[in-house]
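stage 2 :: seqdesign
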């Protein structure tokens, strides 16, 4: 048993029960699975209608006979609701709570019951087997980390439990990338995991060094890219530099793992845990292929109703009679921050700069950050009220810590923020050439 599995057990997450449930689901024949899937989505909808004030209000206090007549829920519905989002039937001791990263530019609090969270980990464990990995495999993690002492120590402890070494993405200068390389020379990593643009930047550095990372770290098996879409061009760069395949992981913290690519680039959907629909702009389900909005239903979460939930991304699918075949996910990729000192940093850094304000004030509905010059940034925000001077001071101090001193910023309140073709916001955008 891995430290991660042990920690889940000690916190009373029923992982063994979830793994048995997953085995049962995967043992079903295709007709049996489709029947189970249909019953399961109606079961969770009826559960929340009976136990959740927020969801009952969203349905107009009447549950329709047709699935397509259930309301599509968007992120602002959770942000703006005056109803309790947590089902009355789930006690606090059985809740797993979190806060969406804000890297999407549209943050809110969420909750899962412990069994639903255990089902997520059971599925991740199952999918990792396809890559020759376990939950105890040694991970090189290209990710952010909060610098505040208590949060920092929590993340470091979780890294220890999960057998991973974190490569913070706040400083991606050549000097720091050289230090990253040294860690690969001295550690037997099984896989790389993290933000696409940070990993690609490291891969380009490796190519300039004229080496192959797997020769430096022979235990390396695969590179898993998350949070940002890893394009075919990105994959070629990563594979050339690392000597191992690159695959995409796609998910949302508030719902579940949505899909994993295999080594051939085919998407394996997480249908054991979620029901996925692709809708056109008029709200009709795509049946003949094409591009549409991704709508998710969490099949196991009794704590909070993610039923026909629009996550803000789009996908291109091909025609299929009874299942969705995703050909392309249209997600965003944040730009790299360039700084006066020559230092480079991931655009996701701004989540760690703004996270306290997002979680504490609750006034920010949407936001995007633009780099307009080498030392100046503009925050465009959709908010209930002005950002206070105290919060501006906090942002400035955090920019000094996470990036470097001497940077300036301006906050502009706007009515709305333009989205990409994929339907989502690019959280950080650089206007530098």
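stage 2 :: out
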């Amino acid at each position: 048993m891995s430290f991660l599995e042990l920690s889940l057990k000690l916190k009373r997450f029923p992982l063994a029960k979830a793994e048995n449930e997953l085995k049962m689901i995967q043992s079903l024949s295709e007709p049996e699975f489709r029947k189970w899937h249909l019953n399961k989505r109606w079961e969770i909808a009826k559960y929340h209608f009976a136990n959740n004030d927020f969801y009952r209000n969203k349905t107009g206090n009447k549950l329709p006979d047709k699935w397509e007549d259930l309301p599509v829920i968007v992120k602002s519905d959770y942000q703006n609701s005056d109803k309790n989002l947590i089902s009355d039937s789930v006690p606090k001791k059985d809740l797993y709570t979190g806060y969406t990263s804000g890297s999407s530019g549209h943050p809110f609090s969420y909750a899962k019951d412990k069994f639903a969270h255990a089902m997520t980990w059971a599925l991740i464990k199952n999918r990792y087997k396809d890559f020759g990995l376990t939950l105890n495999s040694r991970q090189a993690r290209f990710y952010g980390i909060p610098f505040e002492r208590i949060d920092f120590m929590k993340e470091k402890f979780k890294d220890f439990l999960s057998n991973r070494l974190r490569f913070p993405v706040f400083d991606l200068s050549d000097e720091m990338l050289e230090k990253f390389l040294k860690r690969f020379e001295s550690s037997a990593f099984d896989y790389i995991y993290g933000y696409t643009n940070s990993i690609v930047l490291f891969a380009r550095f490796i190519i300039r060094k004229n080496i192959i990372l797997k020769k430096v770290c022979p235990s390396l098996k695969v590179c898993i890219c998350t949070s940002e879409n890893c394009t075919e061009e990105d994959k070629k760069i990563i594979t050339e530099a690392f000597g191992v395949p690159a695959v995409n992981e796609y998910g949302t913290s508030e719902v579940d793992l949505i899909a994993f690519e295999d080594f051939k680039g085919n998407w394996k959907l997480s249908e054991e845990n979620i029901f996925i629909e692709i809708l056109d702009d008029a709200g009709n389900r795509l049946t003949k292929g094409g591009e549409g909005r991704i709508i998710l239903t969490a099949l196991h979460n009794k704590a909070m109703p993610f039923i026909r939930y629009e996550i803000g991304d789009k996908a291109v699918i091909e025609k299929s009679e009874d299942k969705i075949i995703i050909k392309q996910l249209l997600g965003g990729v944040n730009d790299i921050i360039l700084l006066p000192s020559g230092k480079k940093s991931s655009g996701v850094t701004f989540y760690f700069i703004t996270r306290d304000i997002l979680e504490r004030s609750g006034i920010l509905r949407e936001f995007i950050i633009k780099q307009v010059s080498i030392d100046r940034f503009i925050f465009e925000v959709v908010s209930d009220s002005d950002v206070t001077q105290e919060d501006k001071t906090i942002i400035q101090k955090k920019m000094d810590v996470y990036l470097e001193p001497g940077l300036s910023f301006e906050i502009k309140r706007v009515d709305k923020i333009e989205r990409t073709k994929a339907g989502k916001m690019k959280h950080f955008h650089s206007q530098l050439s």
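stage 3 :: structure notes
- The first strand starts at residue 95 and ends at 99.
- The radius of gyration is 22 Å.
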